[in-house]
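ping. complex inputs:
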Amino acid sequence: MDIQRFLHKRVMIPFVCMIFLLGYLGVGLSMGPLFLESGLSNENFIPVIIAVIGIALCISIMIDGLKETAETEKSSGKAVGLKQIILFADFFLFIGLYKLIGFVGAAFIFTFLFMLFFDDKITAVVKKLVIAAVITGLIYVLYAVVFGVRFN
Amino acid sequence: MDTLLQIMSGFGVVFQPLNFLVTLLGFVIGLFFAIIPGLTATVAIVLLMPMTYSMTMNMGLCMVMGIYMAGMYAGSVTAITINIPGAPSSSMTGKDGYPLMQRGLGAKAIGQSAFASALGGAVGILLLILVSPIAVKAALLVKTPGKASLVLFAFVTICALEGKGWKKAMLFIILGMVFSTVGMGLLNPTSRFTFGTVSLMEGIDFISVVIGAFAISEVLMQSDLSNKEYQEVSAAVKDIKIKRRDFIPTKEDFKEIGLVAYLKSSFIGFFIGALPGAGGALASFVSYAEGKRGSKHPEKYGNGSLQGIACAESANNSVCGGAMVPMLAFGIPGDGVTAVVLGVLMVYGIVPGPDIMTRQLSLVSPMYAALMVSAVLMIPISLMLFGPYYIKLVRINRVVLYSAIALIAITGAYAATSSVFQMVASAGVGVIMYFMRKEKYPAVTLILGAMLGPLFEAYFRRSLSISGNNLAIFLQPDSLTFLILTVVFVLFLGNAQKKGVATK
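pong. complex structure:
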């Protein structure tokens, strides 16, 4: 059996969704009966129905994915590389830093790192530091001064 | 008469200096986002949505409408000049625009695209005004079970439009609905899926989902492209020179295209726009196919037909008016942009329904007026003023651009909600969407699921409550009509796709 077929994105994405929906269904079912004693539908009524439909769809998409990967090994997009993983992490780093050091510091570090890793190569570091400072300043003025948003 | 007065008052509002200025600003922002490949008007509205919170309602709506109309039009510039549509709705324009560009007639193609967009946009708004009374009457006839069936109709239509990808679209609608169920119960004051966490009690805000799905995921998608690949695009722009005088369409051009082609395409665009989830891309495709079918010179299509450009552009701008009908009458967005616009309306406490198109028309008439002003005034004027420079925007430093967009997006999630949790939700949705978009899961369906899911749940459960859990309540005439329409559309779209007409 070719294990690679099962690890393909076309199969793994619906598989992960299915696991998520199974958990969602479990929580939904633990909320009580679908109909209350009064005969009215409970708050878990729709969640349970959509979870069941969603799980069926995930299984169907997984089967389609398995068939497609059998026909062709080509992925429909570029693989996720270190660059993308760093960019994901940058968003969450911003949120963590925002709570610790406030908007200006967090935004500066976020923008600088984003520029550094969005680019193909780590070059022009000083230029990027300056641009990150300018972007941070402009966006701070836009939100805090023009639109009156309170950061912390 | 009262309707006319209310609509005229909308023009009065738009022509107030500050409102006119923000409409213009929105239009310019829309142009910018539509011209740069990868960015769309939806992303522009999503990024600006948190900013509109601190504006007056009229200013916010004027800005959004400016972006919408510009977004529909300006994608054609890159489609014509470098054969890369700036927006999905401009895909068909490039088929004829680019061959004209190669023959040195790019300015003529851009000029025709602008004229057709202006005309299509204007016809779309006029039809919206004319159709509104009928839509209101129809909306009044639809009761709770009918509304549930209408939302179901919207869901099914959206999935059917995805063709072979309907399962992915439906899964995304369900995931959108799942997001919307987190927080307080809809009919009973009990918490759902919160795991005792206070942050989850507030639920996942619609704007967090929108920012994550459209803006953050788009920025991540763009990171897949290397500088070298992008430079190939911008290098093509280097030698392009466009003169203003060549933009003006000639009498012969109009004769070649014919008034019927403009009007027919505008009508097609309007009615496709009114279909939930259809949007400008489908409108321009159908209109282009119909234009070719009815043309005296179908062989010119695909080889530089001005009529082809006119058909595609009239239709996709007319969509703006059409998409407003279901959004305002029923709260069902016609496409991704109107889904976000609906979010903006809700922020200002505007509840869609028949009242909004009759007694409260003055609330949304500035929207109509802003769309009309954007179509009739701003498209031609902006073309003559800045047309030769539009294409230079493609050469902007993308590293700086996308870094700024990333910061605006994540900051916007906080600005709109004042919640760090919503920033986390937004980033999380963005990352998930990045993976799923790479596998061709359509982002719009997630948004529609998140937006319409609570409506469907409320209508469906209320209907059950009214009928004592008897499903026969959904066979009442209004509901049955939508259920039959659902079946008809599935069959129609299925057949159309087999014939290769209704492909994305």
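Residues 2-498 of chain B form one domain.
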